[in-house]
Amino acid sequence: MENMREYSRHMIAEKHMEELRNFAEELADTARKIVAGYHARFQTEIEIKQDGTPVTRADKECERELRRLIKAKFPSHGIIGEEFGNEREDTEFVWSLDPIDGTKSFVARVALYGILFGLLHDGKPLLGVIDQPITRERIVGDGRTTRYNGTVVRVAETPCVEKALLLTTDLLDCENAHADKNWGALLHRCRLFRTWGDCYAYMMVANGRADLMADPILSPWDLFPLLPILQGAGARVTDWNGNDPLHATSILAANPRLHEDALEILNSPQS
To answer: What is the pTM of this model?
Structure first.
């Protein structure tokens, strides 16, 4: 009976996949207009949350509107959101919302931030979206196929770290959050390194413009939308220990061969 129930749920997800994908595009269109409008303003009002991270009016307005649209279209769906908490997070379909991933970049008007959201089905990531409203780039993945501005994309086939472009968001986080890892060795063995981070870095890895993303700290609303995008583009994704990423608080993402190379270096003894 349990197997039949799981099969039924899978078929429900398949049946509604096109509708869900189209709705996700509508959400992204709406969020893009809101965030781009705030980006055009000269000043940004900033609040500092209890965890020490910044939040702006753009973050809040964007998440409020996404929540409103989801409730109007799918009132039975749950929501996990960075700014306004969780609602019915144990339901069959749950939306994960990070209205501006990379708020520090947004505040500085550096277009390396993105609108990041996705959909879970029975607790597993089903659909993910990253939208950069200024460069007008959008990537959408469902775990099987990933499309960048409508075109199917795949990760680069870079075979080893010595030929790789490595990305991360914050060097201090890499050094401080995982003192037991050999981050220095990975950093210095890669061909190129840049802090083109947050969700924009995952877009670059998924469409083959970068090779490897190493993220030492992630929240659930950061993580859930990324997995269908990366996996749909052919990436292997684990935490920094090589474990299943579903409940990870760190991420290493690349093509499978490069991922194996990078994971081995990251977990090698420090000299």
So the answer is: 0.92
